[in-house]
């Protein structure tokens, strides 16, 4: 068994589904079910003994200690975090609580558990920390992409909290020998993405006839990676990554935000044209910029390719088309997320599992 924290969120739930589909074995999924946690994402695993769900906080040391002792996982994959930059600007406290203090407490319990292991179980154990490219700060147009050697220059409360967690993970390896791995990934997109982030927000707003809010001049650049490719990278790092190492994960898809929004509008124009025949692009609205908005992120993913043979499978064209099609086919999921009904569903369907 492996313990996945934050496995009801966007990337975590994709990871759990992919892991089980790939025959990776049973998963113990520890998730606090904040607004971002949605067990409906894992509906297809209901009643499947390979998925054990526990509602709880990575910062609850008693619970984490008990779970580790009872389930004896061979690895912990830590997705649990507050993940939305805009929310971190409005209310940074929970980011410090979960991303910094929560990760620290999780590390403490994992260290205690790992210290008590023996032989192959101890040698083979891994703690994989899922982090972000935002810890490296912002690039100008001419700068080379982030490598694992870039210094940390986080600019938002979110990225600062993730940077702090990365440092703790590193320190637990150097000080205590905990067998850690860290991945720093670029912007993900794909199914089950909560519609507060750029791509799903633009799709659902477009279909609802609402404005498509582009921050500032829309020329900020992100590197986009289809979520399934991120999941395969994590599986590969867990399987063969060198202990103590950091791996940057990216899609080689640098694009300005406005281009992303125009691409989504173009796909929707083809797949579900507006009733009045006008383009969805007419809904694009430039709005006030995000405070401290990072201008450009870019990932140099050559280390993971060279050392572990991992490369993304999706191009941006294939991935974004799949994603738009997924949202068109899952209007019920979007509707329940927007109405809050997904939380009621959790209460009724998972009352016994919690
Ligand atoms: P998300 O916000 O969709 O999901 C986070 C999950 O963590 C939710 O299910 C939530 O309920 C859970 N959670 C929050 N606090 C918790 C706590 N204290 N204890 C247990 N569970 C808790 O996030 P995501 O986009 O899936 O990101 C997952 C991880 O990947 C995060 O660590 C994030 O920093 C990192 N990451 C995200 C991206 C991206 O583009 N989304 C890119 C690189 C790295
Ligand atoms: O780079 C990896 C990071 O990507 C992850 O660590 C974060 O968890 C994840 O949320 C994401 O952060 P971003 O801030 O890049 O993602 P977001 O989708 O919020 O915004 C993407 C870009 O689009 C960013 O430049 C801000 C802009 N934007 C966003 C929203 C929500 C808009 O222009 N309008 C919007 O309404």
Keywords:
seven-stranded parallel beta sheet; Rossmann fold; 354 residues; three-stranded mixed beta sheet; binds nicotinamide-adenine-dinucleotide; 44% helix; globular; 12 strands; binds 2'deoxy-thymidine-5'-diphospho-alpha-D-glucose
Q: What is the compact description of this entry?
A:
This protein has 354 residues and is α/β, with parallel strands linked by helices. 44% of the residues lie in helices and 16% in strands. The strands form 3 sheets. Strands 3-2-1-4-5-6-10 form a 7-stranded parallel β-sheet, sandwiched between helices. It has a 3-stranded mixed β-sheet with strand order 7-9-11. A two-stranded parallel ribbon has the order 8-12.
Strand residues, percent: 15-25%
What is the number of helices? 13
CATH homologous superfamily (4th level) name of the domain at 2-191 and 225-252 and 293-314: NAD(P)-binding Rossmann-like Domain
Which H/E pattern describes the elements?
EHEEHEHHHEHEEHEEHEEHEHHHH
Number of strands: 12
Largest sheet: 7 strands, parallel
Given as residue ranges, the uncertain stretches (5+ residues, pLDDT < 50) are none
The helix-and-strand class reads alpha/beta
Rg on CA atoms, Å = 20 Å
Bound molecules: nicotinamide-adenine-dinucleotide, 2'deoxy-thymidine-5'-diphospho-alpha-D-glucose
For the terminal residues, how far apart are their CA atoms?
19 Å
The residue fraction in helices comes out at 40-55%
Arrangement of strands in the largest sheet: 3-2-1-4-5-6-10
Write down the CATH class of the domain at 2-191 and 225-252 and 293-314.
Alpha Beta
Name the overall outline.
globular
Task: Return the CATH topology of the domain at 2-191 and 225-252 and 293-314.
Answer: Rossmann fold
Q: Which CATH architecture of the domain at 2-191 and 225-252 and 293-314?
A: 3-Layer(aba) Sandwich
Average pLDDT figure: 96
